[in-house]
Amino acid sequence: MIHERPGMVQPALIGGIAAGILTAVPFVNCFCCLWIIGGAIVAAYLYNKRTSVPLTPGDGAVLGILTGIAAAVTDSIVSLPFERMNQEFVQRFMTQFSEFVEEMPSGWERWLDQRTGPMSPAWFLLGLLSSAVIYAAFGALGGLIGASIVGRKKGPPPGSPADETNQNPGYRQP
Amino acid sequence: MPEEVPLKKDRDDRARIRKAVLTIYLATAAAFLVWLGGILLAPYLESRSSPWAGLAYFVYKPVCHQIADRSFSCFGRPLAVCARCTGIYLGFLIGLGLYPLLRGWGRPALPAGRVFFLVSAPILLDTAANFLRLWDTPNAGRLVTGILWGTILPFYVMSGLADLVLSRKKRLKSARNCP
Q1: Roughly how many angstroms between the first and final C-alpha of chain A, as a whole number?
Q2: pLDDT tens digit string along B7-23?
Q3: Where are the alpha helices (DSSP H) in chain A?
């Protein structure tokens, strides 16, 4: 289904690794999904810089999907040490909090166990898989936005086979 | 008489594009409604002490920080995504509603780059200012900047998916015609 053009992998890896790191680091990750979209826009820019053929929406989406998958793998690996830090922080905070509050909300210990329990390999793989699907969708969106921003700047040489894309108004902006 | 052949081909092409775009639109809307429903399902399950609540929140964790202070509540529990993300998804829903009115069912075109910069400026400025602690936007403000940005996104999604599907169909057709 996905027909990637040659040279897509490197820009996708650069954008994906950068987005994955920024998504994993606590505090910086307050930008939520914007990092993935931003990473795919960067990948579209890098790809567009090295090719003379304009980036079509379809190419932008494929590039974004690859960026999203690279970001998911990077995020899953980089966030592992931070996960442990977060668990320790939340557990310490809740223990201290319970000393000051007379009545804690019911079921808070179960909630804490659910959220901060040790991560099993199965849980890790499930997280990686769901991240890959979700980041690929967000990455595709970023790739499309990138195509709309950078895709029009270069036109194919007139009469070249790539000129066929000129017949496709899909990549043109109104 | 010979002029009727290209005209018929043109009409057939337009009908084919219309059918593909409509199918893509309905599939996007269905998938998005499932995603949006999950955002409400997570606090509902949590309020019922369901063991599935953790999984429901977990699905949205990769794309949102899920800080409870910065999220709206439903069923007495925080939503699965923050106020800004809720705004983006609500904006996406509004954009999906506006799409047929603004673009119809013809071959979709990407929005202009300047439009993207215009609707992105508020969310980027506000997120950066909050990050740098220049000001602290209330959740309602985060929601509004999210809605504004999210509204343009379906126009990108429709254009990309339509381009992928139509170019694939074209490739398959030309492969079939090749001896």
Answers
A1: 28
A2: 777 788 888 889 989 99
A3: 9-24, 34-49, 57-100, 108-116, 121-150
- Inside any domain, residue A44: yes
Strand partners, B78: B73
Residue numbers of the domain that contains A77: 9-155
Q: Tell me, yes or no, if B24 comes closer than 8 A to chain A by beta carbon.
A: no
Give the one of A23, A61, A134 whose C-beta lies nearest to B160's C-beta.
Answer: A61
Contact B131 A58 (CB under 8 A): no
Look up tokens 């668990």; give the residue: A87
Contact B162 A60 (CB under 8 A): no
| Interface contact A149-B113, CB threshold 8 A | yes
User: Closest partner residue to B62 among A114, A131, A172, by Cβ?
Assistant: A131
Q: What is the ipTM of this complex?
A: 0.77
The answer to whether position A165 is within a domain reads: no
Q: Which domain holds residue B125?
A: 4-177
In a domain, A3, yes or no: no
Nearest CA in chain B to A116: B54
User: Which of A38-42, A125-129, B73-77, B117-121 has the lowest average pLDDT?
Assistant: A125-129
Task: Please give the pLDDT value at position A64.
Answer: 94
